[in-house]
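sry for the spam today, last one i promise. struct tokens for design, 550 residues
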């Protein structure tokens, strides 16, 4: 470890990396070394063979993808594979979030059968779809499930299931697009020569796998880190017109694209398609080769994302008036038949973050069915919680920290009580919230050399967060508000320390009351922050991104 500077050694040790071999693997991912053999997935051979048969026989294939920024990039990966081998007899189907909801749809499957579909490939869904896969079988449709969600006790009778959570594949935490990327990787390796494409040509699909891996909040360790790392490299060079137009609308220079840009800027716009409109618009943006269409779609997604912000803000204002009564409850259940189902995950996340409780938020979809989203504060798995309360739900699923559900109309008013009873049985001890930071330093540490060192740890995300610095006893020199069109919704603060070093720090969507204490110029505080290298309008500026002020 001696070849690394003090800062890098400290940051690596914080990540459990204590020797040079581990450091080399982490800092310098390698495609051959860090990507597992796709055939370690139990049904990979079956899936590749069945896909090959369908292509050779020119069978009609449906790509059935989830409507979020995991399933949609996954659909683009499979489309890219089909384009490489000149296969055209396929359609992409993405269910409507607000009318069809998550997962396979029985009516859609019946329609596929009527239209002569012979193979259906799911992306980011299907692992709990026992009845739907059975219906496909009745209609003469084989199903290849690619998913990463937690299965129920009974698995669907699909011809192949690719899901690291149901077999011995070493990387258990792949996202949905990560799983379909493994299928593309396996297919190219097995049949690439037959179709005249080189082994490894799937690497250019890593932009979509990387985008989804960063968007879906899976831990960026092991193979996921490699996918995100190489995904970012491809994203910075990607020739996709839709991606280029979207970045241009946001004034992001493609070659400087960061994981922060993905999480805060790109993903919300892609997800806005299903929340506010039609998820196909996001798929079309990422898959189109037409410059004019790409420009139109980038404009559209930016517009509806602004609308989404307005709607969420309105719901939060309504909720905040009522939430005082929920302070002492262990599980928060709140809803309104008028709330748009597609945005309730965002709302649940905001409430859970604020009150540090499991939160279930519901509305009604276009079919007058009660549906919603839930988020955990870490004290319980929401899937486990819903499983224990399964009699209250028509359907449910998700991850440990996030999920979706549908509820019987007559049971919605008793849901909070039922979940609270279940919660008392499965809750975990919550760790006391502590001040968490990586490095304690003065403001002189904020320099470009250290920034470059930190950037070597990228891409950042779950499991590999941006390093947090504690700057104790710094003075608030100046507070300024700024924002688009004079909105003043963001904060810019100048801090100084005993050595008179001054540093600019920003906090988006914040005001003087957003922290544990009111902010005043001249006040001495402790600052928690990450490094932030802004390249807005081509101008490079090193600043801090505020995590907390205490």
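last one done:
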């Amino acid at each position: 470890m001696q070849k690394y500077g003090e800062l890098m050694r400290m940051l690596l040790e914080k990540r459990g990396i204590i020797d040079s071999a581990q450091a080399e693997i982490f800092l310098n991912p390698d495609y051959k070394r860090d990507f597992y053999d796709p055939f370690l997935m139990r049904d990979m051979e079956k899936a590749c063979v069945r896909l090959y048969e369908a292509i050779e026989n020119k069978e009609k294939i449906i790509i059935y993808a989830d409507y979020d920024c995991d399933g949609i990039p996954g659909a683009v990966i499979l489309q890219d594979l089909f384009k490489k081998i000149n296969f055209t007899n396929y359609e992409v189907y993405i269910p409507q979030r607000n009318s069809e909801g998550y997962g396979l749809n029985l009516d859609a499957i019946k329609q596929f059968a009527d239209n002569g579909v012979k193979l259906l490939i799911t992306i980011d869904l299907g692992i709990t779809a026992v009845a739907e896969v059975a219906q496909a079988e009745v209609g003469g449709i084989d199903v290849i499930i690619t998913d990463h969600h937690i299965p129920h006790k009974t698995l669907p009778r699909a011809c192949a299931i690719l899901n690291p959570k149901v077999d011995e594949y070493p990387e258990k935490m792949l996202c949905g697009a990560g799983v379909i990327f493994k299928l593309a990787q396996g297919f190219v390796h097995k049949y690439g020569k037959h179709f005249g494409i080189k082994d490894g040509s799937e690497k250019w699909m890593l932009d979509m796998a990387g985008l989804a891996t960063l968007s879906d909040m899976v831990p960026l360790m092991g193979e996921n880190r490699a996918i995100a790392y190489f995904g970012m490299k491809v994203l910075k060079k990607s020739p996709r017109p839709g991606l280029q137009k979207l970045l241009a609308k946001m004034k992001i220079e493609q070659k400087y694209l960061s994981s922060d840009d993905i999480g805060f800027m790109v993903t919300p716009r892609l997800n806005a398609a299903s929340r506010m409109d039609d998820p196909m618009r996001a798929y079309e943006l990422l898959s189109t080769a037409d410059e004019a269409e790409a420009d139109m779609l980038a404009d559209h997604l930016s517009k509806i994302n602004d609308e989404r912000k307005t709607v969420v803000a309105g719901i939060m204002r309504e909720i905040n008036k009522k939430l005082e009564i929920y302070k002492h409850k262990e599980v928060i259940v709140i809803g309104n038949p008028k709330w748009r189902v597609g945005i309730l995950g965002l709302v649940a996340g905001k409430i859970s973050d604020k009150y540090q409780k499991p939160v279930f938020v519901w509305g009604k979809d276009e079919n007058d069915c009660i549906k919603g989203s839930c988020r955990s504060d870490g004290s319980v798995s929401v899937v486990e919680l819903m499983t224990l309360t399964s009699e209250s739900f028509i359907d449910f699923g998700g991850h440990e920290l996030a999920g979706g559900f549908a509820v019987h109309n007559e049971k919605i008013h008793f849901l909070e009580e039922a979940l609270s009873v279940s919660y008392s049985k499965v809750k975990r001890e919550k760790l006391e919230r502590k001040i968490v930071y990586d490095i304690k330093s003065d403001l002189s540490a904020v320099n470009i050399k250290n920034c470059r060192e930190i950037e070597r740890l990228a891409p950042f995300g779950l499991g590999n967060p941006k390093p947090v610095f504690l700057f104790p006893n710094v003075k608030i020199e100046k507070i300024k508000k700024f924002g688009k069109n004079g909105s003043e919704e963001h904060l810019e603060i100048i801090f100084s320390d005993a050595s008179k070093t001054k540093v600019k720090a920003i906090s988006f969507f914040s005001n003087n009351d957003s922290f544990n204490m009111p902010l005043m110029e001249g006040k001495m505080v402790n600052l928690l922050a990450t490094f932030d290298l802004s390249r807005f309008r081509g101008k490079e500026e090193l600043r801090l991104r505020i995590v907390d002020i205490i």
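The CA atoms of residues 127 and 151 lie 6 Å apart. ok im logging off now
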